[in-house]
Automatic annotation (TrEMBL), chains A, B:
Domain of life assignment: Bacteria
Protein known as: Transcriptional regulator
GO molecular function: DNA binding
Keyword entries, A-Z: DNA-binding, Transcription, Transcription regulation
DNA sequence: CGGAATCCGCCACGATACTG
DNA sequence: CAGTATCGTGGCGGATTCCG
């Protein structure tokens, strides 16, 4: 089964973090649950799959069509990961043609609620972020142009000095 | 300035998503804010930086020491990204030696609160996830071993049949 | 001290082909 | 229809070097 990723060893109990939690304990490079979960839901497709399954259970081909752009490989992998984490359940109907349904588990539903909070935050602040980016980019390009002007000016002065020097010694 | 990533064009208004939101509008491949923010906070270091800055403002070298494992390149890049998005502010003290302080903006603080919800969810459900993984892995290896046993059995039968055939024709 | 620029290894992901 | 197997590649991130 090749096990392309590596999460089999060391459950990595991060210790309890009541109240004044120790940041380094839940996100350092040691494999902590937080990072794994975050990486899972934040990868290219998981979030979308979870969101789609929130409405109702879907079969493989339905997910494939709705997402449009995902390869069958990545859809399979994404669903396997979510299934392994207990966020999505997979039911196979032994029939011809084969049919496989996916749906959110209760745990997956609670995660989706939490995710929604993040999505909501983004929706509420996306204009602030866009504004900040525009301001930042403008500032950077302005400084850049100013630096170029200064450089050109120094070049001009240097050339003048050189010319004056040649006039004196020549 | 090379601009290694590309978020300069098309702000990508995802449309309002009141109530029954359209999932495909906030996470499809078109560059929507949600994905960008999620990718930002979920990348290898941003979340940790945000968490550390939540306590108090820190200078570059302090962050570098506390994180331990991050390269100066990635720390710089991470901070620049966060600064560009208006989540972190950067203040330079013109002195010798140079000193640069980073701190969360009000916007960054609100994001940190939202993130905390996700972290809390993970902390509350990490044992369920660990259990689900263990169960899944156990099931997979069990099926695998069963398949191997079946294969060996079929091999044995096939050999017997072959031997019988030779006995008849020989 | 706080970067910027450069080179490079690795692997996550996509495209393709095959199976039950 | 719902996958698995294989190969090629772009880009992320680390190591190193140089600058103000």
């Amino acid at each position: 089964m090749t096990m392309e990723d590596g999460t089999s060893k060391s459950p990595g109990y991060c210790g309890d973090t009541d109240g004044d939690y120790d940041v380094l304990q839940w996100d350092t490079r040691e494999d902590c649950e937080v990072r794994q979960i975050l990486d899972r839901i934040a990868d290219k497709w998981s979030l979308l799959v979870i969101a789609l399954l929130d409405q109702r259970s879907l079969r493989f081909s339905e997910l494939r069509r709705r997402i449009e752009g995902i390869s069958q490989r990545m859809l399979t992998r994404t669903l396997r990961q979510l299934e392994r984490d207990g966020l999505v359940s997979r039911t196979v109907y032994p029939a011809v043609p084969p049919r496989v349904d996916y749906e959110l588990t209760p745990l997956g539903v609670t995660l989706h609620h939490t995710i929604r909070a993040l999505v909501t935050w983004t929706e509420e602040h996306q204009n602030e972020i866009a504004f900040a980016r525009a301001a930042y980019d403008a500032r950077v390009t302005a400084e850049q142009e100013a630096a170029e002007r200064d450089s050109a000016e120094r070049d001009a002065i240097a050339r003048e000095v050189l010319a004056a020097g040649r006039a004196n010694t020549g």
